[in-house]
Amino acid sequence: MPAYLILRMTEEATQEDVRETIKATWGWMNGQYSYTVIDEEFLNSQHDLASLVFRVDGENAHVELARDLHLLLEKSRVGIRVQVLEAADSLPLEMTEAEVSYFRNESIVESRMVSNPESCVRLLHIPSGTIARCKESRRKEPNMEGATALLKALLSNRVTFSQ
């Protein structure tokens, strides 16, 4: 069952902190985990990162991530909040409780200068105000599945590690 690793930058984080943490994260995860970046948010048009969400595949991915997370935290800098979430596929989710919206992946549009439909998905769980986004694919269906799985994980369990 997959897990989710979420990096969120706080106001204290500089972009140098962000770059160093992301570099350490990719270096740490490469070779150990099979992962995909499913969402990223930017602070501005210069692509300064605000958050990054990884889906990590593997049978016990959340256990291994939680166990090994101290290595990442040693390398990350102050101002980066790290969260590990276990997937919650069995959690029932009424889609009537969620507001669905679609948007364009502006980073692809700007970098590749191509026409990109609104295929990225944003789910807002109305009762809790929790938001999950996925822009892993250029198609709506896989992004809807990814956002739904992330929303279920966000709603069902929160194990937070931070500096």
Overview of this structure, please?
With about 160 residues, this protein is α+β, with helices and mostly antiparallel strands. The protein has 2 domains: about 5-90 and about 160, Alpha-Beta Plaits, CATH 3.30.70; about 95-155, Double Stranded RNA Binding Domain (2-Layer Sandwich). Helices cover about 35% and strands about 35% of the residues. It has 4 helices and 8 strands. It has helices at about 15-30, 60-75, 105-110, 140-155, and strands at about 5-10, 35-40, 50-55, 80-85, 100-105, 120-125, 130-135, 160. The strands form 2 sheets. A 5-stranded antiparallel β-sheet has the order 2-3-1-4-8, with helices on both faces. Strands 5-6-7 form a 3-stranded antiparallel β-sheet. A hairpin with a 6-residue loop joins strand 2 and strand 3 (about 50-55). The two termini are about 25 Å apart. Residues about 160-163 have low confidence and may be disordered.
